[in-house]
Amino acid sequence: MTRPDDALSTLSVALGERSYPIHIGPGLLGDPQWLTPHLAGRQVMVVTNETVAPLYLERLKAGLPEELTVRELVLPDGEATKTLASVERIWDALLEAGFNRRCTLVALGGGVIGDMVGFAAACYQRGVAFIQVPTTLLSQVDSSVGGKTGVNHPRGKNMIGAFWQPRAVLIDTDTLSTLPPRELSAGLAEVIKYGLIRDANFLTWLEANMTALRGLEAAALTRAIERSCSLKAEIVAEDETEQGVRALLNLGHTFGHAIETHQGYGRWLHGEAVGTGMLMAAELSRRLGWLGAAEVRRTRALLEAAALPLEAPADMTADDFLSLMRLDKKNLDGRLRLILLEALGRACVHDGTPAERLAALLEDFPRR
Ligand SMILES: NC(=O)c1ccc[n+]([C@@H]2O[C@H](COP(=O)([O-])OP(=O)(O)OC[C@H]3O[C@@H](n4cnc5c(N)ncnc54)[C@H](O)[C@@H]3O)[C@@H](O)[C@H]2O)c1
Ligand SMILES: O=C(O)C(=O)C[C@@H](O)[C@H](O)[C@H](O)COP(=O)(O)O
Ligand SMILES: [Zn+2]
Fold first, then answer.
1. What is the mean pLDDT of residues 299-305?
2. Residues 229-255: what's their mean pLDDT?
3. Which residue from 53, 54, 180, 276 puts its CA 20 to 30 A from 239's CA?
C-alpha cells in the first residue's frame, strides 16, 4: 500500500509529564489545529528572521485564533547572530509587550532561531512555554527535537545554554521547497549521522535515495525526516541531559565545532562542518582498526553524494584543531572524548585515543 503524499504523521518524545508530539507533513503552518492546543495562555511571541519572515510569517499567523495577543520579532539572519545579544532582544520584546509566565514563544526558522528562542524561553521569568516550527531540513531532523538550546561564544560553539524542552514540534514539509541547495546538503549531514551512529539499514536507504532527497522529492524527504526524528526521540527519551547515549548524536561535532569556531561562525555551515567532521571520525576509526577502508570509502561517497565538503579548511592547522577540541563540552578530567565508529551503524564514546594517532590524523587529513 502506498502512503498518500499529504499524509501527516506524529511521533512522540517520551519524557513523562514533559512529553511532546512531533507533527510531520505538508500544510501544517496555516492550520490552527496544530499550534493552538500547545499554547500555554493567550500571549504569543513569534520569533523569526529576515529571510524566513517574508516566506512564512503571515502563513503561520493565519493559523492563530484572533482572540490571542500575538507579537512578532524579526531578527537578523545568520549563525553569527546566535549570540546572547540576540537573546536579549527577545527578552526585551517580551518585557515591552508585558508578557507573563503563561506566554508562549514560537520559533519559526532554522536551528539558529530554534536554539535562541528555546534559550530565551528557558530563562524568561525562569521558564516559559515554547513551540518549535522548524523550516530547514537540519532543524526538522535534529535541532527542533530534544531541548538543547543556547548560543555561541566567540571561544566556542554552543557554550552558553540550557536543556529546555518545547511543548511541540511542528514540521511543515512544504517549507523545504524554498530552501537553498547548500542548506539542504547541510541538513543531509545530520540525516547521514543517524544512519552512521545507529541504523545501518537507514544508511543503505540513504545511499539508494540521495538523488531523490536532493531533488526535494516529497516522499523521500518525509521518510528521512520521520526516521531521523524517530531515532533522535528515542535517544533523547533515554538520556535527556547527555549523561550517556545522547553523546553519540555528537558524531563529527568535536571536529566540526572546531571548524565552525575557527572559521568564524557562518563561513562553514554547521552541517558542512559536521559532514567533514564525520569523515574525520570515520578515518580515525579506521586507523584505530575498527572500520575497514571500504567502510570509510562508503561514508565518503555518501557525503559526496550529498554535496558536502570532504576536506578541512586549508588555513586550519593540527594545533588549531587541538586547541579548540580541548574546549569541547564532552571532555572530562582533561581527557578528550570523541565519538567514533565501531561499524557503520554503531558508534561509541572513546576517551582513549592516543594523542599521537589523533595528531597524525589532524596533520594528514586533506585540506582545501
Ligand atoms: N539544538 C540542537 O540539538 C541542534 C542540533 C543541530 C544543530 N543545531 C544548531 O542549529 C544551527 C544550524 O541550523 P540551520 O542549519 O537550520 O541553520 P540556520 O538556522 O542558519 O538556517 C539556515 C539558513 O536557511 C534560511 N532558511 C530557514 N528556513 C528557510 C526556508 N524554508 N527557505 C529558505 N531559507 C530558509 C535561514 O534564514 C538561514 O539563512 C546551528 O547553530 C547549530 O549549532 C542545534
Ligand atoms: O541533540 C544533541 O544532543 C546533539 O548533539 C545534536 C547535534 O547535532 C547538535 O549540533 C547540538 O547542538 C550539539 O550540541 P553540543 O552540546 O555539542 O553543543
Ligand atoms: Zn549538529
1. 99
2. 98
3. 276
Tell me which of 75, 138, 175 to substitute to probe ligand 1's pocket, judged by most ligand atoms within 8 Å of the beta carbon: 138
> Does residue 2 belong to any structural domain of this protein?
no
Report whether pLDDT(6) > 80.
no
List the CATH number of the domain containing 170.
3.40.50.1970
Cα angle, residue 331 at apex, residues 355 and 337 outer, rounded to 5°: 50
Please give the number of the atom of ligand 2 that sits closest to the Cα of 270. Answer: 10
- For a ligand 2 pocket test, name from 79, 148, 193, 240 the mutation site with the most ligand atoms within 8 angstroms of its C-beta: 148
- Residue among 36, 37, 29, 104 nearest 59 (CA): 29
Shared domain for 208 and 338, answered yes or no, is yes
Is 78 marked as binding a ligand? yes
Number of independent structural domains in the chain: 2
Q: What mean pLDDT is predicted for residues 335-356?
A: 97
Cα(30) to centroid of ligand 1, in Å?
Answer: 21
Specify whether 250 is catalytic.
Answer: yes
Give burial (CB, 10 Å; 0-12/13-18/19+) of 345. Answer: middle
Contact 271, 187 (CB under 8 A): yes
Model confidence, pTM: 0.98
329 is catalytic: no
Residues at CB less than 6 angstroms from ligand 2: 142, 146, 148, 157-158, 190, 242, 246, 249-250, 253, 329
Q: What is the dihedral of CA 236, 238, 241, 246, to 10 degrees?
A: -70
Let me know whether 123 and 199 are in one domain.
no
Q: Give yes or no: residues 190 and 117 share one domain.
A: no
Catalytic residue among 153, 246, 267, 346: 246
pLDDT at 3: 58
Give me the domain span that covers residue 49.
9-178
Q: Are residues 167 and 211 in the same domain?
A: no
Q: Are residues 174 and 218 in the same domain?
A: no
In this prediction, the answer to ipTM > 0.90 reads: yes
